[in-house]
Write a structure and sequence with these properties.
The complex is a heterodimer of chains A (473) and B (255).
Chain A: H1 8-16, H2 19-42, H3 46-62, H4 64-77, E1 81-85, H5 88-101, E2 106-109, H6 113-117, H7 120-126, E3 130-133, H8 136-144, H9 160-171, H10 179-196, E4 199-202, E5 206-208, E6 213-218, H11 222-229, E7 232-238, E8 242-243, H12 246-260, E9 268-272, E10 286-292, H13 296-299, H14 315-318, H15 321-326, H16 337-348, H17 365-369, H18 376-389, H19 395-408, H20 411-429, E11 434-435, H21 442-445, E12 450-451, H22 458-463
Parallel strand pairs in A: 1-10, 2-3, 2-4, 4-7, 5-8, 7-10
Antiparallel strand pairs in A: 5-6, 6-9, 11-12
Helix pairs in contact in A: 3-12, 9-10, 16-18
Chain B: E1 6-9, H1 13-18, H2 20-32, E2 36-38, H3 48-52, H4 56-70, E3 75-78, H5 81-94, H6 101-110, E4 112-114, H7 115-122, E5 131-139, H8 142-148, H9 152-159, E6 162-167, H10 182-185, H11 187-204, E7 208-211, H12 214-226, E8 232-235, H13 236-240
Parallel strand pairs in B: 1-2, 1-3, 3-4, 5-6, 5-7, 7-8
Helix pairs in contact in B: 4-6, 5-6, 5-8, 11-12
The chains are: A alpha/beta (473), B alpha/beta (255).
Chain lengths: 473, 255
């Protein structure tokens, strides 16, 4: 997907003016936030589980080479194949190669953000394959020709009415208006695709080093059908999604479902270890895991290593007020919200993503709900630091900061400037006590009045206060 | 009085420039809590605007300046969760690699407190002598709430004010959209977040909005006044110090 993060401000303005988006996001935010809060409160050990999950992930990242090798040998021992892709192009080439070799025609897909990251659908369609997204949300946006706007709820920006229109246009027949009818229609359309599918591509929520198992969680069961009914199953996953043991998986499953959708557990948890074995009733003939680096290994050992703990639950964006106002598309690339504002500059470069680290109030709610305790605000601030270091801060802001620092390091000058400002602004406020427009302050006054100061600074009033009689000591 | 702790008042930039009454309210509350209050005149800014803009060098320079100015006090107290979170949480990190300033920043951080949290948690204040005849909604500013754990303290003291009816917001933990320089860099988003917060305030039935951070309050008051709302905006300390009759933020005055 072509990075359009530089258009953040324009896209945000468009998004704010879209009444459908406001309805859709408002509903989703309320339900995700409240359900998570209820379930977190109902599990006494939830905070301890978050600590444990953070520690397991840190341990894996410190020993990533070891666990990756262990995972790869376990996959091969189970009869599967592991492919290492250092970037998106390599990952696409591997997958296209497999599809060509097995003479695929129809390819079904479970939800996979890595496949979005490597632009897989476009590459497959360009080679003439029929690609069908089977996650309901992904299916909806595939019909709409849009990228996902959320990492676990890709069509969260669509209202039910919009989905009704899309389905009618794509499927014909009567316009379905209830959620149940819409889901039934999608199920019937998709059922047929599963049976025709040659290659099923899924993501991987967890890769288990000890067993070579890849695990996906879904609420629709579409992942199971995608991978068991296809002749070939390809897992696309980032190299950081490793956990050491199945025991660790049980820990992560408990925090993932609660953090993501506010469920105790997702409806389907599917474990895949190798292809179909002799005597198995179903399952794919081939099992491939494409391990994608694409910038991740660069993050190891640096200030952004903690970001690799991310389990892609979406809690940070569900709780982000900026995401809640503008939605995921405004961010301009694959990963939106707080985690995306950290990852996109790291994957796509600081220069093409200038707004992302700045379009955040640093309110910290994302960090407070992150199941693996990623210090997202600190990382966004660190990205701002790197922007500043590399001269990517807008010149006017840089000059402003310089002038402000010069004064702030000189108390006499700073206080003089404040005394002057207090008087001028009070004068401009007049009897109304507020200023409606102010030169150079359009950023403030576009949406707000500027409350006028009381007239003198605290420090000058303090110096001029009537002295109390000296107390005996 | 010799065992009264010596408190250096951190006169935050916005308080100093826009709302000195909050400074005097702070002094009054601190003195009522048995503190000797001094206001060092060599102070300027905590440096947070530089830190959050990624200019660490400027932030470090200002952090060293604050450490130096306030080093001799038993406590540093300021009427802002945001500035005081910078002293408490950010200075030790900013100066961590400096063998001389690092430990000094740590020591200052341990003695730095937001005003209301200081009154309740350190001085054990459980109630204030004040009256305010109004329905008051409290805005939890994020840096106080998540940075310093300030949630119950202002509620406890506000609930002790005669005649005050407190109105809880439906979603008190969501950001109001101020965010420091965010509010001027992304005005439409900031404005939308203010509207969401103010809709919550309106549904609560409050006639007065208070909070512990003037940044949020100037932003919310500015949006309220732009909308022509009669809701009065005050700093929490003003009500607690019996200064609730001060004209609200962004309200006119008689003279």
């Amino acid at each position: 997907m072509i990075n359009q993060s530089l258009k953040f401000k324009d896209k945000a303005r468009e998004a704010l003016a879209d009444p459908h988006l406001r309805v859709a996001l408002g509903k989703a935010r309320g339900s995700f936030v409240n359900k998570r809060a209820e379930l977190a409160a109902a599990l006494p050990e939830f905070e301890r589980l978050r600590d444990e999950a953070r520690d397991v992930k840190n341990h894996v990242l410190e020993n990533l080479d070891h666990y990756l090798e262990r995972f790869a040998s376990a996959v091969e021992a189970a009869g599967g194949q592991v492919h290492w892709a250092s970037d998106a192009a390599e990952a696409r080439a591997v997958i296209l190669g497999i599809c060509e070799r097995v003479q695929a025609r129809t390819i079904t897909k479970g939800k996979s953000m890595v496949s979005e990251e490597i632009d897989l659908n476009d590459a497959l369609e360009a080679r003439g394959y029929t690609v069908v997204e089977t996650d309901l949300g992904e299916y909806i946006i595939q019909l709409a020709g849009e990228p996902p706007s959320h990492i676990i709820a890709p069509a969260v920006h669509k209202t039910k009415d919009q989905v009704s229109d899309l389905f009618q246009a794509a499927h014909g027949g009567s316009r379905k208006t209830t959620v149940a009818d819409l889901v039934t229609e999608a199920r019937l359309v998709l059922r047929d695709k599963y049976f025709r599918s040659d290659v099923g591509i899924t993501g991987g929520n967890f890769l288990v080093a000890e067993t070579g198992t890849s695990i996906i969680v879904t609420n629709e069961g579409n992942g199971d059908l995608t991978q068991t009914l296809s002749r070939v199953h390809i897992v696309t996953s980032g190299i950081e999604r490793i956990v050491p043991t199945l025991e660790d998986v049980s820990l992560f499953l408990r925090i993932l479902a609660r953090s993501a959708t506010g469920q105790e557990t997702e409806t389907y948890t599917t474990l895949s270890t190798g292809p179909r074995r002799p005597g198995d009733l179903d399952g794919p003939e081939e099992f491939h895991v494409v391990l994608v680096d694409n910038g991740r290994s660069r993050m190891l050992g640096g200030p952004f290593q903690d970001m690799l703990r991310c389990i892609r639950c979406g809690a940070c964006m569900n709780h982000c007020p900026v995401y809640g106002a503008v939605g995921g598309h405004a961010y301009g690339w694959v990963y939106p919200g707080p985690m995306g504002s950290v990852l996109t500059p790291l994957f796509e470069g600081l220069d093409g993503t200038r707004d992302l680290p700045n379009a955040c109030t640093l309110n910290g709610r994302c960090q407070s709900v992150c199941p693996v305790r990623i210090p997202l605000p600190e990382m966004l601030r660190e990205l701002r630091h790197q922007q500043h270091q590399q001269g990517l801060m807008p010149p006017a802001q840089r000059r402003g900061l310089g002038v402000w620092r010069f004064a702030a390091e000189r108390p006499g000058l700073y206080q003089f400037a404040n005394r002057l400002a207090a008087r001028v602004l009070k004068g401009l406020g007049g009897r109304g006590g507020r200023i409606r427009t102010l030169p150079l302050a359009g950023g403030w006054t576009e949406f707000r009045d500027l409350p006028a100061p009381q007239g003198k600074t605290f420090l000058e009033l303090w110096q001029a206060r009537p002295q109390k009689p000296e107390e005996p000591r | 009085m010799s065992d009264a702790p010596r408190v250096g008042l951190f006169a935050t930039c916005l308080m100093n420039l826009f709302r000195p009454s909050v400074g005097f309210a702070s002094v009054k509350l601190l003195e009522a809590a048995g503190c000797r209050v001094e206001v060092p005149l060599a102070q300027t800014c905590c440096g947070q605007p530089a830190y959050n803009s990624g200019d660490y060098a400027a932030a470090q320079a200002l952090a060293r300046q604050v450490v130096e100015v306030f080093e001799g006090f038993d406590y540093v107290v300021g009427p802002s969760g945001s500035c005081m979170s910078t002293l408490r949480n950010d200075y030790p990190r900013l100066l961590a690699d400096d063998p001389i300033w690092g430990p000094r920043a740590q020591a200052l951080a341990a003695r730095s407190h937001e005003l209301i949290a200081f009154l309740v948690d350190v001085r054990g204040v459980q109630a204030v002598e004040a009256a305010y005849p109004g329905r008051v909604a409290l805005h939890d500013s994020c840096s106080g709430l998540r940075g310093l754990g300030i949630k119950q303290q202002p509620r406890l003291l506000l609930d002790s004010v005669d005649g005050l009816k407190r109105c809880e917001l439906a979603d008190p933990e969501v950001c109001c959209g101020f965010g420091g320089t965010f509010c001027v860099k992304y005005p439409p988003i900031s404005g939308r977040l203010a509207d969401d917060k103010l809709a919550d305030v309106a549904s609560s039935g409050a006639d007065t909005l208070v909070g512990g951070d003037l940044g949020c309050l100037l932003h919310l008051a500015g949006r309220l006044k732009r909308q022509g709302s009669p809701v009065k905006v005050l700093h929490t300390a003003e009500i607690l110090a019996q200064m609730g009759d001060t004209p609200g933020i962004g309200d006119g005055h008689e003279d």
